[in-house]
Design goal:
Length: 696
């Protein structure tokens, strides 16, 4: 076995160079305060709550996670543990916080205990009384009350239980919403702070997924409700409840036709009680409807409708939204699916020249957006004039740029081969830096980004440092390939491990096949009803095109590795294209999408009852007898996203067919595989590929 070398140890100790980096930024107090979370250094996993006073430039740690936990962290409440998996949160300590309306007071939970803190320099966090382990706290506008969830019931402090005791889950996002639809919360305050919009979730019809810890057989198994493709979904209602528990209206829409609530908010305007906005979708997500709801009667009015014959892409963050002048901003596709665009009151505002990725709000009288202008591997920050449609670049150099704005203050984060830079520009024109205590990236990696084949498939190539042209290199395809995630991206952290692989003697190739985002809607929708076909066609075509351009790539020795959908791709490579792929390490692979979740799977593949041949074609279990290449299967036994049964079923089929393979089961490891697990697996994979590909 290859022990962990210096890079792998450093990567594990720093959570892939993320500890110590500031995150979760929010402006408060009219842009004067910048709130964020950050740990104390590159190997410190405990995030603390901090604030930067832009008037003085002074940063203050308002809540020290370790000081608040003198006896150690204990266990996370189950609901918070699940949510951290859903949003892929690695850091320990304070996972999130929420600001009151003036942005001077925040609330947060720490391992079930609820705290409030003000932005005053000498203020100490105040622990608030709760009915039990608290989760997802939200203050009302003036900060006088805080709503939180405990044991699937909604409470207010000061006060008490708000939700009825009727066996439902109240105030939380169901699995499908949190994992696949981008909605991780389940309760929202009214603008006056006297009532709440609350999700009521009933999961009685769902099957249960069970997880037992084989290292601790004396412990009972844990279970949760899982919406499997073709089966029932959670029943979701939205109710208005008084902060004192008085019952209010139930929002009225056709939930049978539109069962998914992908977004909700309670805005000012629209009458004395404000306006509730919600976005609902049909089960196959071909239609998304924006509704305005009366909080008194619960009656809804349709404001806009977006349809697509295949599926409506997940909503552009920041849309739909009502602008300050009352106009409605929505996301649309331009004709032919060339670009993701914006529309005002249904009239297109942007065209084919820009791929809109997010709307960040209004800044200096214009819309602040994140978008792609040139290479899909890059992202720019732009100002969009809603009157003329003209674009002004705020950050458009090579790399990936993001932003946050409030009351004239602007925070821009830029990431490129040289690392991360954060610049805070105050409303009066000053520039301040936000301290980043993360470990400096050990490698300066400049992947060779290329678009190949007549489809313009994005690819990246990383070669060993000091590579001598003319030296033939075995190829390692290290990629994801699934919908919803862009792998070929100029964000520097993701290339560190790939440079390590390259320095072990590989030419590392990454390919974003059709179905992945940000090239164009048409590029993304090409995966409709065709996971396996489109993935394999594009990966093989791109690999061969790169081989023609770069003769040092030895396509007679190709390994493939990946995790989640990337694990599916890797296993499929050696099962279906052994002429191209000579060894595979498949981690956490969904081997049969009939056993994956509803909202993701049905969006792309339809209902298994109606499209059985699609599901059969994309299932890998029946391919087991065809295995002729070395295959390493890896799966965490606590994975609640891709259940370990996916890998175990494939292993069973391989065993029944007499096909040798390797199986690495990881007790206690979830889908995120944190705590240095990924690095330990990489060391094992290196030995596997060296043996399988005949490397010295």
């Amino acid at each position: 076995m290859n022990p962990l070398d210096d890079f792998l140890r450093l990567s594990a100790d720093t959570a892939r160079f993320s500890y110590g980096a500031p995150r979760a930024f929010s402006f408060g107090d009219g842009g004067r305060l910048l709130w964020f979370l950050r740990s104390g250094g590159p190997t410190d996993p405990y995030d603390d709550l901090r604030v930067l006073d832009t008037a003085t430039g002074v940063e203050t740690r308002l809540a020290d996670a370790r000081a608040l936990l003198p006896d150690g962290p204990g266990e996370l409440p189950r609901a918070e543990r699940w949510l951290r998996e859903r949003i892929r949160l690695v850091a320990a300590g304070i996972g999130s916080y929420a600001l009151a309306g003036d942005g001077r007071r925040a609330v947060f939970t720490l391992y079930g205990r609820l705290y409030a803190v003000t932005a005053d320099k000498d203020a100490a966090p105040e622990e608030l009384p709760t009915a039990g382990a608290a989760f997802d706290p939200r203050p009302n506008a003036d900060g006088s009350r805080t709503a939180y969830v405990s044991e699937d019931a909604l409470y207010v402090t000061p006060g008490g239980r708000v939700s009825p005791d009727d066996g439902a889950r109240w105030g939380v996002a169901e699995f499908a919403a949190a994992e696949e639809l981008g909605r991780a919360r389940g309760h929202w305050w009214s603008p006056d702070g006297d009532a709440l919009l609350v999700a009521r979730v009933v999961e009685d019809a769902l099957q249960r997924r069970w997880f037992a810890d084989p290292e601790r057989p004396e412990r009972p198994a844990e279970d949760f409700a899982y919406p499997e493709a073709g089966g029932p979904n959670a029943e979701v209602q939205l109710r208005v409840l008084g902060a004192d528990g008085r019952p209010g209206a139930r929002l009225d829409w056709d939930a049978a036709a539109f069962p998914y609530v992908s977004d909700a908010s309670w805005e000012t305007g629209g009458g004395a009680g404000g306006e509730i906005l919600l976005t609902v979708q049909d089960r196959l997500q071909r239609t998304a409807v924006l509704l305005s709801a009366d909080p008194v009667t619960g009656r809804t009015v349709e404001l806009s409708r977006t349809t697509h014959p295949q599926w409506v892409d997940p909503l552009v963050p920041g849309t739909p939204a009502r602008l300050s002048d009352g106009r409605m901003l929505t996301a649309v596709d331009t004709p032919g699916g060339v670009a993701r665009a914006l529309a005002l009151d249904g009239v297109p505002l942007t065209g084919d020249e820009v791929q809109v990725r997010a709307v960040l709000g209004e800044h200096e009288g214009r819309l602040l957006i994140e978008a792609g202008l040139r290479d899909p591997a890059e992202q720019q920050v732009l100002l969009l004039d809603t009157g003329t449609g003209s674009l002004t670049a705020l950050a458009d150099g090579p790399g990936v740029h993001t932003a946050l704005a409030s009351a004239g203050a602007l925070l821009v984060t830029s990431a490129d081969a040289d690392g991360f830079r954060r610049t805070l520009r105050t409303a009066d024109g000053r520039e301040l830096a936000v301290a980043d205590l993360a470990e400096p990236l050990p490698y300066r990696v400049e992947p060779r980004f290329e678009r190949v084949t007549e489809l313009g498939i994005p690819t990246a190539l990383v070669l060993p440092r000091g590579h001598v042209p003319g030296r033939r290199l075995p190829v390692l395809l290290d990629t994801y390939g699934g919908p919803g995630y862009q792998d070929v991206c100029a964000e520097p952290r993701r290339w560190q491990a790939r440079q390590w692989w390259a320095d072990q003697g590989f030419a590392v190739v990454t390919v974003d096949n059709r179905g992945t985002p940000y090239v164009s809607p048409a590029f993304t929708h090409a995966m409709y009803r065709g996971f396996s076909r489109v993935t394999m066609e594009d990966q093989v075509a791109a690999l061969r095109a790169l081989g023609e351009r770069h003769p040092d790539l030895d396509l007679g020795r190709v390994g493939v590795r990946g995790w989640s959908y990337g694990g599916y791709l890797a296993a499929m490579g050696v099962l279906r294209r052994p002429d191209v792929f000579h060894a595979a390490a498949a981690g956490a692979a969904p081997t049969d999408f009939r056993h994956y979740d509803t909202a993701y799977t049905e969006r792309y593949l339809g209902l298994p009852q109606e499209e059985p041949e699609v599901y059969e074609r994309d299932c890998l279990i029946g391919d087991a007898p065809a295995l002729t290449r070395p295959l390493l299967l890896v799966h965490g036994l606590a994975d609640d996203n891709v259940h370990p049964s996916h890998t175990l079923r494939l292993s069973r089929a391989l065993t029944d067919a007499g096909r040798p393979h390797r199986l690495l089961a990881l007790p206690g490891v979830t889908h995120m595989a944190t705590g240095g697990v990924r690095e330990k697996v990489m060391a094992l994979e290196l030995d596997f590929f060296r043996e399988a590909l005949g490397l010295a």
